[in-house]
Design brief:
Elements: H1 3-7, H2 21-27, E1 29-30, H3 41-48, E2 52-54, E3 62-64, H4 66-76, E4 81-83, E5 92-95, H5 98-104, E6 121-124, E7 138-143, E8 148-153, H6 167-179, H7 187-197, E9 220-227, E10 230-237, E11 261-263
Parallel strand pairs: 1-3, 4-6
Antiparallel strand pairs: 2-3, 5-6, 7-8, 9-10, 10-11
Length: about 270
């Protein structure tokens, strides 16, 4: 694949889960080389010959190996591939370390090979303590004519939200705080959110001909987040907590809710 091929892709759509280059650009990952130091020369040669294999971690797309990366770099005249979208404990990681490879397979790289100067793949992840649960550091990459440097940093505490102390804002904060920008990442988190929101009671169906006001009962609410191919949607029914939020808040009205339909596409 060339850069021109990538430029020609239609990006204004949801990726297809079957054989879609846009899906692979979004969700593919480099093969893990965590065991690289323990490999012998034979194992290392087999590892470096990997092109692609199924990505079981994300349940979609592929893991790409050193051979596939080197073909892509040579085809496009690139020195390295810099990517993100994968948490790193120290905020950054250089894949397929040339020093380790050269120590086990002498003359694998020529003296002036670009891999000597920079790893084939660099992952830079700038969000420290991702989702408030990973405890990872964040990093930024600076590229100069003769050097590549990283700035690594820790996370800091969240600022206190400044919201009015009323019931509507309380519900607004509860719903958006638990679902935007990050939806529940486990079934346990989903149940915890449901318990906080409380039990449901049946409410009358809204008359669509009546203008909606901030105090109107809302029968259904949904909050959808789109990230790559992921579409995590929580749809709900209203509950006995009838405090609602005007439509101008996030473009929709929220109420406390306890019935969730969880729909996940992709990973």
């Amino acid at each position: 694949m060339t850069v021109e091929d990538i430029d020609g892709l239609d990006r204004f759509r949801e990726p297809d889960l079957e054989k879609d280059p846009l899906l692979d650009i979004l969700w593919s990952d480099p093969t893990s080389d965590i065991n690289l130091p323990e490999m012998d020369a034979v194992e290392l040669e087999e590892f470096l010959a990997i092109e692609f294999k199924p990505n079981g971690v994300r349940s979609c797309s592929y893991f790409y190996g050193f051979a596939a990366v080197q073909t892509f770099l040579d085809t496009n005249g690139f020195l390295a591939m810099i990517r993100a979208h994968e948490v790193q404990e120290h905020g950054q990681y250089g894949h397929f370390d040339a020093d380790i490879i050269s120590s086990k397979i002498p003359n694998f790289f020529e003296n002036d090979h670009p891999r000597i100067r920079m790893p084939a793949v660099l992952t830079v992840f700038s969000a420290p303590n991702y989702c408030d649960r990973y405890g990872n550091k964040g990093a930024m990459l600076s590229i100069f004519w003769d050097a590549v440097t990283f700035e690594v940093y820790e996370s800091v505490a969240h600022p206190e939200p400044k919201v009015p102390e009323d019931s509507a804002s309380s519900i607004h904060l509860l719903v958006t705080g638990n679902s935007c920008p990050y939806m529940p990442t486990s079934f346990r988190e989903l149940v915890r959110m449901a318990v906080e929101l409380g039990p449901a009671t049946a409410l009358p169906v809204l008359d669509s001909s009546v203008p909606r006001t901030p105090d109107s009962a809302v029968s259904d609410a949904s909050c959808s987040m789109h990230g790559g191919i992921s579409d995590l949607q929580l749809s709900s029914r209203t509950t006995s907590k009838r405090s609602s939020i005007a439509d101008h808040d996030l473009g929709m009205a929220f109420q406390a809710q306890d019935f969730f339909r969880l729909r996940i596409f992709g990973c």
